[in-house]
Amino acid sequence: MASRTLTITLQPDWRAALRAGGHAAQADRYQGETLNFETAAALFGRLTERRWALVQALLGAGELSVRELSRRVGRDVKRVHEDVVVLAELGLVERSERGGVACPFEDIHVDLRLRRAA
What we know:
alpha/beta; 43% helix; globular; 3-stranded parallel sheet; Arc Repressor Mutant, subunit A
């Protein structure tokens, strides 16, 4: 697979999001990956400004040590490590066997639509 893409969505109906992903998976070609959040609070609670900065620093940078990543963003190594753990749980970054971290995506798209409550 040459390049991976990720779409981050805000879809309260997770069943509909799962069905849409299932339909897309039936195609013969790579459709990209999706990370869905049920609420805006869940999205912004997990993907904070500092975590976004880490993802941005990793995009296209290849594998970096947590120490090097923290140097590049000007943050404490321990706090960067804590944020990398959360980003890895979400699938936005991947850890290597050597302990390095990399963002596997070439393109990340956020599809966010907020509507008034019914």
